[in-house]
Queue: 2 jobs
Job 1
Amino acid sequence: MILHIEKTKGLERAQKIGDALKAFVIEEQDRYVLISSSSLKELPKEYEEDISAQFVFDNDMQLSSRKYQKQTREVRIGDKVIGGSTGNTLLIAGPCSVESESQIQESSSLLKELGLSTLRGGCYKPRTSPYSFQGLGLEGLKLLQRMRKEHGLVIITEARDASHIDKVIEYSDVIQVGAKAMYDQGILRACAKINKPVLLKRGFGATLQEFVQCAEFVLSGGNEQVVLCERGIRAFETKTRFTLDLCGVSYLKEHCNLPIILDPSHAMGHAYGIPDLTRACVAMGVDGLLIEVHPTPKQAKSDAAQQLDHASFRELYASLSAVAAAVGRTIV
Ligand code: PEP
Ligand code: MN
């Protein structure tokens, strides 16, 4: 359950009530928010008058539930806002991995040419094999930092594990938590303590409940800026890399107040399907898209098969605004 206590009651009292209920206590502008798995029956009588609002849930979707906050939460990413009543669908693009200065310069130029603001590239890659390219690490983060400085781009990059989370937090504007890292408590708890948006990808074997519970780790720790990303789950099919769970997206849109971004690139795993899938994703009326694009996909050091080349990306981009308009959205 979630309880509100007005600021006038004082932090000490809010903390006492929090202790009695084994609750997380978050300080907001004019109230304390207590989140607990206890029931109202466990609230000592003497504190009843301190509670200004109460919300009871039947599962652990609490802060992220539309029963708690009806409207989608607003999250600012650079100078763009998604969620709320903005109707914005943020197009996030870039290569799977940052590979070299010339590569990331070319990616940045493509985004600038199209008026896009948000560059994504991985520096710590969670590869399936230890023998594959693992990312440039800190050197890659420094290249991304240069792209922010030189081109004014907003930088999204991922943390593979908690060992380098501080560096990723320092160098990026938005922290991506990848599918394989979704359960990493070290990453989630570190992300809960910062004032930067977190792009949380769904583990490919995770249920919607588990996905949202991971988001709750970040929210209940005090960071309200969480964006969910559906990137495909593992089903029995082997011809495509994963299965993009659009039914799950509908579930989340109905029940969950966090903005949702769709990643068709990792779901499909092949460049040929990405344009159609991206348009289908826009038609879902989501808050953003994550598309992998590379200057020379064949030479990409990770996820080569699924990355669009620049010409295909330009063509795809040109087709999106009409689809977005049809569902009352704007590509930004
Ligand atoms: C990625 O975004 O490049 C990536 C590794 O994706 P995921 O974590 O969804 O597999
Ligand atoms: Mn990738």
Job 2
Amino acid sequence: MSGDLTLTSVTKSFGRFTAVDDLYLTIPEGSFFALLGPSGCGKTTTLRMVAGLEEPTAGTITLGEQDITRLKPYKRPVNTVFQSYALFPHLTIAQNVAFGRRRQGHKNVDSEVEKMLELVELQAMAKRRPAQLSGGQQQRVALARALINQPQVLLLDEPLGALDLKLRRQMQIELKRIQTEVGLTFVHVTHDQEEAMTMADTVAVMNGGRIEQLGAPEELYEAPATTFVANFLGQSNLVAGKVVGRDGSVIHLDVEGTAITAGSARARSDEGDVWVGVRPEKVYISEKDEERGDELNCLVGGVVSDVSFVGVSTQYLVRMPWGQELTVFEQNTGNRERFRPGDPVDLLWRPEHTFLLDASQDAA
Ligand code: ATP
């Protein structure tokens, strides 16, 4: 049994509350897929339905040709790695990894265990007990223990949530490497947008039991479909504007009396009132009225209101003439903190980095 994992019109209600609302989703075989969203959006419930730990109120779940909607969890070719590693403390690492296979009646599992420990780079730890391992290493044991069962689909429920930031970043790269190496379908649940974007081929952003947008990480980031996605994936500098004309693929806008242009490629809305957005790292901050090339031809003037040093970059808050503050990230390449609060500056960016959204949504 293998193939794409497909959810068709899947709904899960708890009493009168709908946690997952008419979900349609196809996860291609062998892909790294992330379900991303804030707490309570229904991502864990979705994962639990795939695992068989929760029965859908309506809809079907298929893996390849097979309908697995009502299959018992242990009959599904699916394994789950949770945030809590739940390793057996009295067993060695090798015994922990072997445990499930041995219980299924497999006798000669030593070479499989060795292969798995090699995959997660823990060969040297085989004889240790879980308490002698770091959190990240324990999580890798949990991963090896799931992968040794040769599932078709591996479900990961906030597996890195208990790790500190640095370890989490390392494990993200590790997980991606392991997924590429084994070529299985990974479905990863997280509320951390950076984590989802670092690892996944495809990300589904969930909100209120529904999918707001699904796509490659760059696509979601560069061309969000809704204000929710724009804000959930980072700062988006949303400003209210109005479309005033079109010129081929260029859209002309009026933003509080300032003329701004946008490329049509990222326009989710292209007439009347719109939200105009631009990511902070796409904005170039310069001295007021500085001479410049005209390829950066979105231009608004403002006054620096706050400067903070954030390691690789400096974050500027710049107050616009209409009172709103826009955020700008500037890479730190030596000329740290070029501007101070009170300095008049120009903000510039390329029209193709402007994105437009339907103004009927909240900016929140
Ligand atoms: P988190 O990141 O906090 O785990 P989530 O996006 O994974 O959030 P779910 O755990 O899927 O969210 O829960 C979605 C909603 O369904 C929540 O409002 C939750 O309170 C509710 N819910 C989940 N399980 C049950 C249950 N067994 N009974 C009643 N309500 C539930």
